[in-house]
Amino acid sequence: xxxxxxxxxxxxxxxxxxxxxxxxxxxxxxxxxxxxxxxxxxxxxxxxxxxxxxxxxxxxxxxxxxxxxxxxxxxxxxxxxxxxxxxxxxxxxxxxxxxxxxxxxxxxxxxxxxxxxxxxxx
Length: 122
Description:
single chain, four-stranded antiparallel sheet, alpha+beta
């Protein structure tokens, strides 16, 4: 699990894909940024978050989701970390907004298997 001050914990990214309820996008984004992200960052092991709007610029058609959140995690026990999230979800510690389309949330947890590869200057 997470221990303050440890620097050798495994690093993961949690990718969350969601959609707001139609017509409630502004409320959804406010809740997600101001409340939900903060609730997740309060879980030991969550260290950072960034939110994105998805586009169809790849030419593969519109994605099934409009919102992407990427969370940086540090933990030796990702199963316990995600169990901690699930135990808080829907409680006062992590309420779920009715602006979230309940049929759409999807989450994926990933651990890097290579070092970060950076483009070389031209």
